[in-house]
Specification:
By secondary structure, the protein is an alpha+beta fold. It folds into three domains: about 15-150, Alpha Horseshoe (Serine Threonine Protein Phosphatase 5, Tetratricopeptide repeat); about 160-440 and about 725-735, Neuraminidase, CATH 2.120.10; about 445-725, Neuraminidase, CATH 2.120.10. It has eight helices and 48 strands. Strands 13, 14, 15, 16 and 17 form a five-stranded antiparallel β-sheet that branches. A four-stranded antiparallel β-sheet has the order 1-48-23-22, with no helix packed on it. A four-stranded antiparallel β-sheet has the order 5-6-7-8, with no helix packed on it. The longest helix has 22 residues, at about 15-35.
Length: about 750
């Protein structure tokens, strides 16, 4: 029975109260005799008590608000008939405010739909009587969806629309529905607004030191705030309404029951009705390996699936109707096994059987390691629940597929939709699929060269055009030739699995390819005195990494292999006589790996600095050319210590941690990028032994991530900036294949 068909029963306040008390007492008698809670008595008793009419207008306002909250609680606990009665009484109460009555009607319609009944007349009533209220916007969308179901139209042409987001702040595909979005800035402020930038509202300010990490609910009514593990607190999840009110902590990773595993690597996913969260640690080494469901109403949680050692949950998502959870398991290491997708039947937030595997990515034996590592497949459900959106390889290129799902079973192969390096994807309630694509915009790099004057100030920054990356992100990491007239750097090849070494004249801009690499992991650096370039080429064979250290003549391009190392190596610098090479056993920006010194004459490698043992602390290090100092950026601190066993000393605190720092060739100073007293980007220097920092010039860009590089004579400095989060966000519409008869 819908809203217009039901009749309101009018009773006297006194008789209603007496009925409620008598009914509650009767339920108590049942409880005392039977010893169990009745699923009927409790909601009816609450509903009868809430139906008491208050005596004063002010009390009426308070009562209707309290009634609405009571109805929501009934709905959250699954007592839909009781919730419907509460919402109907509020909607019929002329003394209640218009916004409360509109919200009650919207909640009423939602309950009717959860019970499998149409709520078209309720939505029409909201549009007719409360067109000025926020509830009308959602009612309009639901009516349009109902109209489409009743009178399906011919499927339109697939369209893709680019979302211009970079001017708002940091955001991802799951942060927008194509019209609205949440976004954050480096100060930790989280905003809600429209994509046009005409309006925005501050939702939350993350405390200093906490990285902004949040996820809006599907209907943008709430935001889940993720607080990662730090020295101040364990991991926890909090909730806040989209208007910035009603902040509350939902679940904390403490001794009372850990579900986050004491790590920063975990994901969350909202149910479409906003009643539940999926929580799943994604780090392969932690002890907690559960896919857990958490009630948004009270934080209660239980395990949906336990993951055996050697595997990890990479992604999980609710179906729109809440009847299934799809999740992806990856085997560690991911290069050696396919991704597997599972479906778990659900009812009222509880599993109703065992998970079933519905998809396994094809074998990729013989492919380049760069593709073997791209195992993540699951993106989301489509909004109608008919398909799982997957990203897998098609003819050697990443592409979007739709896997048809009906009643938890797959009876047809996935259907190709379009090519794209879809890093993440999110279905919206209006039927679109919003995704991030890195294939059209790899890591972009900018380079500038400046000169030091007689007062040791940097002047005359000149932009240097470099090739940067093609297809996949490439770290160019340029270095000066011994005479300071040329630079050498790595660039992407037309084949995404390979790299090229570029030699570029700074005065003319002329470029030539010096070397074609057969691998996609290449780091190169000019020697200090000789016109030759050292390149560390990482390869992956028979399940193992190794690195060839090669010397390439800048004149002839002739290559000579100097050494082969087990595992990865990355070139940091050479000594002044080019007889000692300093290497890193990893790649930049992925924590602090060991630093070693390799002697050309003896072929002896010696570790000179070990990484930090504290998990989660990332940073970067540089050895001085004479081998007497190590300088490190750790979070927002610049530190130095003498070798071999000096103590770490903080040189500067509160700097930008993006990697723009370097030791001068004379080994006396450290140049670094930070903000000056006026909040402008600037270059500073500080003595490696400590002292007051000195401002030495402006910085040519506002990008924080990159590196600094000196010419051998120390008269020139090159800054490289890299936009690591440089991706496009697209909204795909009309992309689902027509239903098969």
């Amino acid at each position: 029975m819908n809203q217009t068909q039901r009749k309101t029963i009018h009773t006297k306040p006194g008789s209603t109260k007496r009925f409620a008390l008598i009914f509650t007492a009767a339920c108590g008698l049942v409880l005392s005799r039977r010893g169990f809670a009745s699923s009927i008595c409790l909601p009816l008793a609450i509903a009868s008590l809430l139906s008491v009419q208050p005596s004063f207008a002010q009390s009426a306002s308070i009562s209707t608000g309290a009634q609405l909250q009571a109805g929501i609680e009934q709905e959250d606990f699954g007592h839909l008939p009781a919730a419907i009665d509460v919402y109907q009484k509020i909607a019929a109460d002329a003394s209640a405010s218009r916004d409360v009555r509109a919200k009650a009607l919207l909640r009423l319609a939602g309950c009717e739909e959860k019970l499998g009944r149409h709520a078209k007349q309720v939505y029409e009533q909201i549009l007719h009587d409360y067109a000025d209220q926020p509830a009308a916007a959602f009612a309009r969308k639901r009516l349009a969806a109902i109209q489409q179901q009743e009178h399906p139209v011919q499927r339109g042409t697939m369209t893709v629309r680019k979302i211009d987001w970079s001017g708002l702040g940091d955001m991802g595909s799951s942060d927008t529905d194509g019209q609205r979005a949440i976004f954050s800035n480096p100060n930790g402020e989280v905003f809600f607004g429209d994509l046009a930038g005409r309006s925005r509202r501050l939702i939350y300010q993350f405390p200093s030191g906490d990285e902004p990490s949040c996820l809006p609910s599907r209907d943008f009514s709430m935001v889940a705030l993720r607080f990662m593990t730090s020295t101040r607190h364990p991991s926890y999840i909090a909730l806040i309404k989209i208007d910035g009110t009603s902040y509350r902590e939902l679940v904390r990773d403490d001794a009372a029951g850990s579900i986050l595993g004491g790590t920063s690597d975990w994901g969350i996913a909202w149910s479409w009705d906003g009643r539940y969260l999926l929580v799943y640690p994604t780090h392969p080494q932690i002890g907690v390996r559960h896919l857990t469901i958490v009630s948004v109403a009270d934080g209660k949680r239980h395990v949906l699936a336990s993951v055996e050692p050697g595997r990890r949950v990479n992604k999980a998502a609710f179906s729109p109707d809440g009847r299934f959870v799809a999740y992806e398991l990856l085997t560690i290491p991911e290069e050696l096994a396919p991704a597997r997708e599972y479906l778990l039947p659900m009812k009222d937030g509880e599993p109703q059987g065992d998970p079933q595997m519905v998809y396994q990515s094809p074998s990729r034996d013989g492919e380049d390691p760069i593709f073997k590592g791209r195992r993540s497949v699951l993106r989301d459900w489509t909004s109608d629940g008919a398909f799982l959106a997957l990203c897998d390889l098609h003819l050697g290129k990443p592409a979007l597929f739709l896997l048809p799902v009906k009643e938890g079973k797959v009876n047809a192969p996935p259907e190709f939709v379009r090519y794209g390096d879809i890093q993440s994807g999110h279905s919206t309630m209006n039927g679109a699929f919003v995704y991030q694509d890195r294939s059209t915009k790899p890591v972009e790099s900018e380079a500038f060269v400046g000169s030091f004057d007689a007062d040791n100030h940097v002047r005359d920054w000149q932009r240097v055009e470099i090739r940067g990356g093609i297809g996949l992100g490439v770290n160019p990491w340029p270095s000066f030739s011994p005479d300071g007239r040329k630079i050498a750097y790595v660039a992407g090849d037309e084949d995404p699995a390979k790299r090229v070494l570029i030699l570029q004249d700074l005065s003319t801009g002329q470029q030539r390819i010096l070397f074609h690499s057969q691998t996609n992991n290449e780091s190169c650096r000019f020697e200090f005195q000789h016109p030759a370039v050292l390149c560390a080429s990482e390869t992956f064979n028979d399940g193992r990494w190794s690195t060839d250290l090669n010397e390439i003549s800048a004149d002839s391009g002739v290559m000579e292999r100097l050494e082969t190392f087990p595992g990865p190596r990355y070139i940091l610098r050479t000594s002044e006589d080019d007889r000692t090479f300093y290497l890193s056993s990893g790649v930049p920006f992925l924590g602090i790996p060991p630093i070693s010194r390799w002697e050309r004459d003896s072929h002896q490698e010696t570790v000179i600095d070990l990484p930090l043992h504290s998990e989660g602390e990332g940073g970067q290090e540089r050895p001085s050319m004479d081998g007497h100092w190590i300088v490190r950026i750790l979070e927002h601190d610049l530190l130095a210590r003498s070798l071999p066993e000096g103590e770490w000393k903080t040189l500067v605190s509160g700097i930008l941690p993006g990697g723009h720092f370097e030791i001068t060739p004379d080994c006396h100073w450290v140049l670094f990028h930070s903000f000056d007293s006026e909040g402008k980007h600037a270059l500073f220097r500080v003595r490696v032994t400590g002292g007051e920092p000195e401002r030495v010039g402006d910085f040519p860009t506002k990008e924080e991530w990159g590196g600094l590089f000196f010419s051998p004579d120390g008269h020139k400095v090159l800054t490289l900036t890299m936009q690591y989060n440089n991706y496009d966000i697209w909204a795909l519409e009309n992309f689902e294949p027509p239903a098969k008869k």
